[in-house]
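Each letter names a residue; structure tokens follow underneath. Both lines appear below:
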Amino acid sequence: MLETNKVSSVSKIKSNNKTKITQNKKLKKSLSFLSFVGPVYLVFAAIVLVPFIMGIYYSFTDWNGITGHIKMVGLENYKYIFKEDLAFIQSFKLTVKYTLYAVILTNIVGFGLALLVTQALKTRNILRTIFFMPNLIGGLLLGFIWQFIFNQGLISLGSILKIKLLETAMLGTANGAFWAIIIVAVWQGAGYIMVIYVAALQGVPSDLIEAAKVDGASRFQVLRKITIPMVAPAITVCLFLTISWSFKIFDTNLSLTGGGPFGSTEMLAYNIYKEAFTNNNFGIGEAKAIIFFVVVAVITMVQVYLSKKREVEM
């Protein structure tokens, strides 16, 4: 009996020791995880989560953003936006139109540049650097640079070459200013998208392409049947990025056209900025921002879902 009790007590001690060791390991892992993630999470909460929650609260208030007097108005701000704020509806339609053109053109140009710089060219590394460089310039500075190009550079060039089309101030008309924003957006964003497509194209097996060429496939058939399906995950990422960029465009819109002429190029983000900080209707501005967030979130989630489904079909 004594030996049996000794054995059982020893086994209990061993099991307790193992439990303690396991718990210590879990505690160390948790502490190491918190030491890495904790500071980042705190910064994220302070910069993103807390302002977002405060924004939801202010969207139900009548506040000018300056005084301490805040009046709760419930859903009145949202009712006003959908029923009476025609400028917001117009900005929303314009932003959707801009997004369609900008997303398609940026991805086409970015993919075309990626195909170019993945060829056996001696200058391909230099070309990659040149194509990517516009992305390093800030949107505000970029807008002022292109404003000078459109207002003075192209007009001077047109007068020298006697080209009437260039002599017309592009930013002076609603249609011209709209396309000017698209040109600048594509010029800036195509280089970044190119880098993603280059990484995807380098992962396409060369043996598969060579086998298709041996079987008599043309370049277009290789591109359509092999290359594009193989880079489908990169297409999903690039579509997500360009849709997000296009809907959130603000700095280029502000510096290039300022929403003009006569508010014809006022995008959603700029409309929200004017409502909150120019008109001092902070509650309505926050309500617009919440609507803007929901719309962008829904569109991006649908896009990612459809793109992922398309990847499986490919």
